[in-house]
Amino acid sequence: MKKLLLVLFVMGIVAPMQSQIIKTEELSEVIVYATNYKYLNSIDTKEEASLPVEMLRRKVAAFDVKNSEFYQDDYEVYNINFYIPEGKILAAYDKDGKIIRTAERFNNVNLPLSVKNAVLDRFPGWTITKDTYLTHYYDKKGVTKKYKLKLENGDQVLRVKVDEKGEFL
């Protein structure tokens, strides 16, 4: 019985060692193109509006125009629409796949804290019932972000525009 336990113990130690033999394999070269890093860096903020917004923006940045079925060398600009239930992004790419500009519109996303606090300070007792998040990115000019909000207080309805810093427009 002791010999049987000893044999099982030794096999239990030796078997995993045998399976850990290192195999080396040569992989093909991987090339990563960071064409649209400028778009992601300038459009992202520390306090993002929503996870679906972030995911769609990453898809826009990763989209490869050159490998799409409608790519032709003759065209200078390609306008591509991206949709999710919360909103959409219209992106314009040049023939090299770089994002030139985007127009983004999202409905009822999680608002940044600066926007919530600005509305609460200026309109105490009011409730945000609807919001629209608009972003415009231009390669040369930068980014503009604003929120269109519908506020309600009983029977009263008010519409306001706020930028990402919480300043009313």
Can you put this structure into words, describing what you see?
By secondary structure, this protein is α+β, with helices and mostly antiparallel strands. It has four helices and six strands. The protein has helices at residues 2-19, 37-43, 51-62, 113-122, and strands at residues 77-84, 87-94, 99-107, 127-138, 142-153, 156-163. The protein is flat and about 85 Å long. The termini are far apart. The relative contact order is 0.13. The model has no long low-confidence stretch (mean pLDDT 79).
Q: What structural category characterises the helix and strand content?
A: alpha+beta
Instruction: Choose one word for the global shape.
Output: flat
Enumerate the strands of the largest sheet in spatial order, edge to edge or round the barrel: 1-2-3-4-5-6
Helix content: 25-40%
How many distinct helices? 4
Helix and strand sequence: HHHEEEHEEE
> Which ranges are low-confidence, i.e. pLDDT below 50, for 5 or more consecutive residues?
none
| Strand tally | 6
List the defining traits of the structure above.
169 residues; alpha+beta; 4 helices; flat
